[in-house]
Sequence to fold (228 residues):
Amino acid sequence: MAYYHRFDYPAPDPAILASLTEKQREMQARIVIQKPDFNLKLIAGCDSSFIGEDQILSVFILLSYPTLEVLEKVWHVGSVELPYIPGFLAFREAPNLLKAYEKLQQKPDLIMVDGHGISHPRRLGIATHLGLHLNKPTMGVAKKVLVGKYKEPDTTKGAIAPLIYKDEIIANVLRTKDNVKPVFVSPGHLIDLETATTIAMTCTTKYKLPEPTRLADHYAAVFKSEVK
Fold:
């Protein structure tokens, strides 16, 4: 079966676009990038997957840190409340992710999101959204770049290169394994880039992705097949 990228999404409603843009401006002003004030014992990974056009499944995996033992797995399926608008995807994902988060018996000290933090055209990737909603440290680990320029880091594990946008380092391009494509690590909220990068590397075992987001991605597919 052939799959094609859709280019037939209707133009966004100007009123919705204006409202979301204003919300982003308000949220932007509240972002705090700083050395985190936590004793990291519990880390969560999260991811979302769309089911057709109108449903979304969101997963949270809770792990011990630094031993990375899985302690909880929760998920929530909900309706998509917003049409697809490029640059505003977090508004589609965040409401359902928050509902999944509520199901966790224990709350994490840090959330690692499969997506971007401030490495977003307006500094508001899904990791930053969640951090602001929950007032909790968050970081993004993304597989693809959204915005900015970088030079490829060395091919060895642990090599880093800065991702730069508008003369600011917004993420680190991190090689988590020898000779594999890098990931893009960015602070979301209440954490700094250096700490986020160290934690991403500490959480990486034999796979390319750090365990919190790798497992969230894995279980999103598992739970999605159950829903279907």
Q: What stands out?
A: Residues 1-7 have pLDDT under 50 and may be disordered. The two ends are 19 Å apart (CA to CA). Residues 14-227 form a domain with the archaeoglobus fulgidus dsm 4304 fold fold (CATH 3.30.2170.10). The helical segments are 14-28, 89-102, 126-134, 193-202, 211-227.
